[in-house]
From TrEMBL:
<dbReference type="InterPro" id="IPR051824">
    <property type="entry name" value="LRR_Rcpt-Like_S/T_Kinase"/>
</dbReference>
<feature type="signal peptide">
    <location>
        <begin position="1"/>
        <end position="21"/>
    </location>
</feature>
<protein>
    <recommendedName>
        <fullName>Leucine-rich repeat-containing N-terminal plant-type domain-containing protein</fullName>
    </recommendedName>
</protein>
<keyword id="KW-0732">Signal</keyword>
<dbReference type="InterPro" id="IPR001611">
    <property type="entry name" value="Leu-rich_rpt"/>
</dbReference>
<dbReference type="Pfam" id="PF00560">
    <property type="entry name" value="LRR_1"/>
</dbReference>
<dbReference type="InterPro" id="IPR032675">
    <property type="entry name" value="LRR_dom_sf"/>
</dbReference>
Amino acid sequence: MSMIIFSRFILFFTITTSVLTALRTWAASPALLHPDELKALEEIASTLGITKLNLGYGDPCDIKKLKIDVSQDPGSENIIACDCSFNNSRTCHITELTLKTLSLPGKLPPELVKLPHLRWISLVRNYLSGTIPMEWASMPNLTSILVGANNLSGPLPAGLQNFKNLTVLAVEANQFSGPIPDEIGNLTSLTRLNLGSNQFTGSLPTSLARLVNLEDFRISDNRFNGIIPSFIGEWPQLKKNISICKRTERTYS
Ligand SMILES: *[C@@H]1O[C@H](CO)[C@@H](O)[C@H](O)[C@H]1NC(C)=O
Ligand SMILES: *[C@@H]1O[C@H](CO)[C@@H](O)[C@H](O)[C@H]1NC(C)=O
Ligand SMILES: *[C@@H]1O[C@H](CO)[C@@H](O)[C@H](O)[C@H]1NC(C)=O
Ligand SMILES: *[C@@H]1O[C@H](CO)[C@@H](O)[C@H](O)[C@H]1NC(C)=O
Ligand SMILES: *[C@@H]1O[C@H](CO)[C@@H](O)[C@H](O)[C@H]1NC(C)=O
Ligand SMILES: *[C@@H]1O[C@H](CO)[C@@H](O)[C@H](O)[C@H]1NC(C)=O
């Protein structure tokens, strides 16, 4: 009899201990990047021209950067930010990706769409070529695109109005060409628009008048012609000076 009670006690003790251990492990395990996004990071890195990506080094949301083997120039930035509130704080999704001044030689990755919670992408000061992938327009949460100081070329995407929720579009110091599409006037959430130091031509579309939330607008060092639309002086929020100089100055009459 006492033997049965004793073994029941042992059983109870064993079960309690293992439940407690499991609970403790569960509570201590850190939130991890969603496996689909981990896989997407490999594709994104490859398109950006990153050859030595080490995803075994630690969870990107935990170490808050991409473990890559590239020269870390002064001023380089490598930042991943995540929202880890999913699945009872067990799953993270990437909300920000900044890879700045890292001499990346590839292209802007269309695979970014596989990070549907991404709000901010900055790939400033690299050697990226090609143009802005239209695929990015299907990312409802993408509000900031910063791709200045690269080797991007071609016209701005014609379907620009599909980038509905953009507040920041900074494409300065690239080789973009052609006219500014009329549709840019549909991006009414824009607070910052930097088109400076490219090869843009034509006249500034009057649809720009609709961008009443602009605080910072830069178009200098392009090949625009025609008249500077007068509404530009009337944007209520505008804080930065619009400097129109060098090549532009010559063609304005
Ligand atoms: C929650 O986790 C499961 C298993 O990893 C995953 O399939 C699912 O997509 C996650 N949900 C969210 C919202 O991340
Ligand atoms: C956009 O972000 C919100 C809030 O983080 C989220 O609920 C929603 O699922 C995201 N959209 C997509 C397509 O993931
Ligand atoms: C994006 O824009 C759509 C349509 O304009 C809007 O319904 C949605 O709430 C916006 N999403 C975010 C995250 O701002
Ligand atoms: C910039 O892109 C052009 C093609 O668009 C290419 O010929 C040139 O070599 C690139 N320059 C650099 C520095 O990558
Ligand atoms: C976008 O802008 C163009 C030209 O300004 C306009 O004709 C069109 O109706 C707009 N589209 C949307 C979806 O707002
Ligand atoms: C804009 O630039 C002019 C000339 O450089 C300067 O006098 C003026 O104070 C500037 N305005 C603002 C708001 O910075």
